[in-house]
Design a protein that fits this description.
5 domains, 26 strands, 23% helix, globular, signal
């Protein structure tokens, strides 16, 4: 833990200059910086779809447009049909997206098979390497061969299956050549942008201030959210997690993150893909570090540059102040209080920045003040604005036997949400003892715990309940309900299936156009 023997500063902005500097070799020390404004809008961050996103949506629309024919084809060519691939060529057509053709894959007699269903020139037949009826086995075998930490399977309604590859394309091509892999032609490879960064790990204008930036070698699917909060500081050019005590660990950063100087001149973290406009936190501020893991065999170069310290890998670099979709809670606070959006944001930001200031004073200057509990003050994360009524006083000894068969207070009802059985998902009740030990708890504060295979798309919502997830073929999802048997959840249809759970809902749904 870093402590500075300096007078208390009036604000984090004032402390930023005096709590940073450079040694005689030019390496920087930054232990404090002002956080970004926590809440700037009362809505989700604006999203501008990439060309690849727009092409995928265009393909979905084409599939929907031709769905009656494709359904007949899929049914009539079981064991022969290998899926549809929408293949693009650059050009000015379709509002700059280019030209597109639907490649229909077949194991036997491709041209004749397609001609039985359509003569539309939008579609062209090609020879497949496998049929959709065998896709689950084929795709998972290839994912295992490439490596479960590098390749993740995906399946669609009529499309060819795909593997999401989280390694640079050049490295994958070299590995494929080395192994002599003949990947089936109708197994689509999608290279994740975060694994193919176009920005450097360290921006040139800060490179001279940093001794060593230790980073994971490959990208990985983010693990289930595990919030852990501490400041990351730069001390004599080396990055440390400023924990309590005197044994601060060095940091191993995720592959997807880089360091730069932001628009206000502060050293900060950012994504390494230029189209990713998310804003991470600044060096010297408290961050949400995700799940942490101590590295047993740290990079020798890091130890040589920064000394023999523990090394801890982190999975997130989001700013702590305002983390977790707080805009949703601030909007609810606005509506409860009957105030304007601007006033609600002003109050929330004032509280959260004061909270960060108190924690910075405690961390750096030996302060002992208890931070303002903004979550409780604004009633967010499911915390009530007013405290609950106190429990009734204990009964006198003479009264305690009078309600043996008829209690004075009825027991609280257990949290027993019942799934809506609408045919989108299949729900199977099983004994909790059957739950596989390798499943991961994907949430911790809900009215039920969801257990799932690693990589299943489930996440916590700030209101304390699972808001939405994806039910994916091959990914097991188990809902553990208080006082009841486990529910195993399986997709009952092709296409995207969403799982919702909240105070009044427990159901699967599917977009109407599927």
């Amino acid at each position: 833990m870093i402590r500075l023997a300096v007078a208390l500063c009036a604000s984090l902005a004032a402390c930023s200059a005096q709590n940073s500097g450079a040694d005689r070799d030019g390496y920087a020390t930054i232990v404090e910086a002002p956080p970004y404004t926590p809440i700037e809008t009362l809505g989700p961050a604006a999203y501008t779809p990439t060309v690849e996103d727009r092409r995928m949506r265009f393909g979905d629309q084409l599939e929907q447009q031709h769905l009656p024919m494709l359904r007949r084809l899929k049914k009539g060519e079981i064991g022969n049909f290998g899926g549809i691939e929408w293949r693009w060529s650059d050009g000015p057509e379709n509002d700059g997206l280019g030209t597109v053709q639907g490649i229909a894959w077949f194991l036997r007699e491709p041209a004749a098979s397609l001609a039985r269903y359509t003569s539309d020139p939008l579609f062209r037949a090609e020879q497949a390497g496998f049929s959709r009826s065998d896709q689950d086995r084929i795709v998972r075998e290839w994912a295992e061969r490439i490596g479960p930490e590098r390749a993740y399977p995906g399946f669609g309604n009529m499309s060819v299956p795909w593997l999401s590859i989280v390694m640079p394309r050049t490295e994958f091509d070299a590995l494929r050549k080395e192994k002599g892999w003949k990947i089936p032609v109708n197994l689509l490879l999608r290279f994740e942008p975060r694994a193919n960064p176009d920005l450097p790990s360290i921006a040139p204008d800060v490179a001279g201030q940093i001794r060593y930036f230790a980073q994971a070698d490959i990208s990985s699917v983010p693990p289930p959210d595990l919030a852990s909060f501490d400041a990351i500081v730069l001390r004599d050019g080396c990055f440390f997690i400023d924990e309590g005590g005197d044994d601060d660990p060095l940091v191993l950063f995720p592959f997807e993150a880089g360091v730069w100087r932001d628009e206000q001149g502060h050293v900060a973290f950012r994504p390494r893909v230029s189209t990713d406009t998310r804003r991470f936190g600044r060096v010297g501020t408290r961050l949400q570090l995700g799940s942490r893991g101590e590295i047993s065999d740290p990079p020798a170069e890091l130890i040589s540059a920064c000394g023999n310290h523990r090394v801890v890998a982190v999975t997130s670099l989001d700013q702590a102040a305002g983390y977790g979709n707080d805009w949703f809670a601030v909007r609810e606070y606005r509506d409860r209080e009957g105030i304007s959006s601007a006033e609600a944001m002003r109050r929330a930001n004032e509280c959260m920045l004061a909270q960060e200031q108190t924690m910075a004073d405690n961390r750096l200057r030996g302060g002992r003040e208890h931070p303002t509990q903004c979550a409780k003050l604004f009633g967010i994360w499911g915390n009530p604005v007013n405290p609950p009524p106190p429990s009734p006083p204990p009964l006198l000894p003479g009264m305690q036997t009078q309600s043996a068969t008829e209690p004075l207070f009825p027991p609280s009802s257990p949290k027993k949400l019942v799934p809506t059985r609408n045919g989108v998902c299949r729900f199977e009740e099983r004994n909790p003892a059957e739950r596989p030990g390798e499943l991961i708890a994907t949430n911790r504060d809900s009215n039920m715990i969801f257990w799932a295979d690693e990589g299943a798309a489930l996440w916590d919502h700030p209101n304390g309940f699972i808001d939405e997830g994806m039910v994916i073929p091959g990914k097991r999802i188990v809902a553990a309900r208080e006082g009841m048997k486990d529910l195993w959840i399986f997709p009952n249809r092709d296409g995207p299936i969403y799982l919702h759970s909240g105070p009044e809902i427990f159901a699967c749904s599917q977009p109407e156009d599927w």
